[in-house]
Design a protein that fits this description.
By secondary structure, the chain is mainly alpha-helical. Among the domains are: 189 residues, Citrate Synthase, domain 1; 102 residues, Cytochrome P450-Terp, domain 2 (Cytochrome p450-Terp, domain 2). Helix content is 50%, strand content 5%. The protein has 17 helices and 5 strands. Strands 3-4-5 form a 3-stranded antiparallel sheet. The protein has a two-stranded antiparallel sheet with strand order 1-2. Helix 1 runs antiparallel to helix 8 and helix 9 packs antiparallel against helix 10. Bound molecules: carboxymethyl coenzyme *A (CMC). Carboxymethyl coenzyme *A binds next to helix 16.
């Protein structure tokens, strides 16, 4: 008997099964042969929230949550944050290898030349209410792109996909910038193709009457690093949404709109906005113990703390914490930083958080930086979405190329009524 198998004995029948093990994993469908009788559907595994179910094989991103390791295509996040750029990382995620000089120049050129939006998209953004949340605007506008590029649904044409991928990465900052200007009641600023990806984003956010916007170098660099840190995170909620919707084979804009929706939630990308709200509510260091106690009682969650995969310090949070100091030298210290540092110190000494291995995650410090750059809290998750776009697209591309891909369609354990007869209205209680 091969050692790479799992022996399962079904005590209901006394039958034993040999299930092959590959990559420390068994195929859930191999369990289906386990039956009590011929009519039996066969055994399933129950895994709400996919806590222990691999939904795909992937070569894009590696995480070791126990050791706090994150690598894109094998490269440690620390090295990429220090030495690379967001567009280089995007190319790496999408194509599997670091681009050479010519490839990077061509990729950057293509991204830069797809930044403009169709003029009608301005009208879509105009039609949102003055107080619309920019994540809602982003989600709606990304979905609308599907109607502007109908050829995008030809997803088995690789060249066509490459064009749509570049379009989406290029246009995300423009949609974000226009959405921000809309809620601020400011005129839209068109992309400046001479600026870097991060610099152009700042231009579309903050340019006023000056003829040429010149981004602050420290802030531009910090945005680029933050984008690198957020660029991918394997099968997170929004990447799974992208893959799940993508598996029914719509165009990538429709699938990415689902990714934006998933990211919006406060348990995922929306946490960066929620952290700032929480820190503002705490208000002063002496109120921290009270909030910690409330979190321990389950009254609310300490936002920016905990992670499904990381059971050690999130490596991205470490890099962001260091980057924050450089930004604060430029912008002045965010007054909420002291509360955040003290909250982290107390939580990391507290038994409740220690036992559950709850550490600050990527969202704990990022909002403090964004706020000190002058971004309103509602824009924080939008920045996350811009940064996560190449990751979503790399996951989507990998899914399309995987011969094992089928439409995502989970099973359920039905716990409802057995068959029963329709009750006429006159006989209902
Ligand atoms: N504050 C207080 N208690 C917490 C927290 C928290 N932030 N996170 C988890 N716990 C407790 C939870 O109550 C549970 O305790 P018990 O075992 O006594 O019931 C235990 O820790 C395990 O939690 P879980 O809900 O089973 O963990 P999960 O893997 O389902 O959830 C999480 C992961 C990130 C959704 C969760 O930690 C959380 O809600 N954190 C706050 C929101 C947040 O910061 N999200 C950003 C995540 S990182 C960036 C991203 O993904 O976008």
């Amino acid at each position: 008997m091969s050692n790479d198998t799992l022996s399962i004995t079904d005590n209901r029948t006394g039958s034993t099964y040999e299930i092959p093990i590959e990559n420390d994993t068994i195929k859930a469908t191999d369990l289906r042969q386990i039956k009590v009788n011929d009519e039996d559907f066969g055994m399933m595994s129950y895994d709400p929230a996919f806590g222990n179910t691999a939904s795909c094989k992937s070569k894009v991103t590696f995480i070791d949550g126990e050791k706090g390791i994150l690598r894109y295509r094998g490269y440690p996040i620390e090295q990429l944050a220090e030495k690379s750029t967001f567009l280089e990382v995007s190319s790496l995620l999408l194509n599997g290898e670091l681009p050479n000089k010519k490839e990077l120049e061509a990729f950057s050129h293509d991204i830069t030349h797809h930044t403009y939006l169709h003029e009608n998209i301005k009208k879509i953004i105009d039609s949102f209410r003055y107080d619309a949340h920019p994540m809602g605007m982003l989600m709606g506008t990304v979905a609308a792109l599907s109607t502007f590029y109908p050829e995008a649904k030809d997803i088995f044409d690789t060249e066509n996909n490459e064009l749509q991928i570049k379009r989406l990465i290029a246009k995300m900052p423009t949609i974000a910038g226009f959405s921000y200007r809309h809620i601020m009641g400011l005129p839209y600023i068109y992309p400046d193709n001479e600026l870097s990806y991060a610099g152009n984003f700042l231009n579309m956010m903050f340019k006023m009457a000056e003829a040429k916007y010149v981004p602050n170098k420290v802030i531009e660099k910090a945005i680029d690093v933050l984008f690198i840190l957020h660029a991918d995170h394997e099968q997170n909620c929004s990447a799974s949404a992208m893959r799940s919707v993508g598996s029914s084979q719509p165009d990538p804009y429709s699938a990415a709109a689902a990714g934006v929706g998933a990211l919006y939630g406060p348990l995922h990308g929306g946490a960066n906005e929620a952290v700032l709200e929480m820190l503002a509510e705490i208000g002063s260091k002496d109120r921290i113990p009270e909030f910690i106690e409330r979190a321990k009682k389950g009254e609310f969650r300490l936002m920016g703390f905990g992670h499904r995969v990381y059971k050690a310090y999130d490596p991205r949070a470490k890099i962001i914490k260091d980057a924050a100091h450089e930004v604060f030298e430029e912008t002045g210290k965010n007054p909420l930083l002291d509360i955040a540092l003290e909250l982290e110190r107390i939580a990391l000494e507290d038994d409740y958080f220690v036992k559950r291995k709850l550490y600050p995650n990527v969202d704990f410090y990022s909002g403090l930086i964004y706020q000190s750059m002058g971004l309103p809290t509602s824009m924080f998750t939008v920045l996350f979405a811009i940064a996560r776009t190449p990751g979503w697209l790399a996951q989507w591309k990998e899914m399309l190329e995987d011969p094992e891909t089928r439409i995502a369609r989970p099973r359920q354990v039905y716990t409802g009524y057995d068959e029963r007869d329709y009750v006429p209205m006159s006989k209902r209680k």
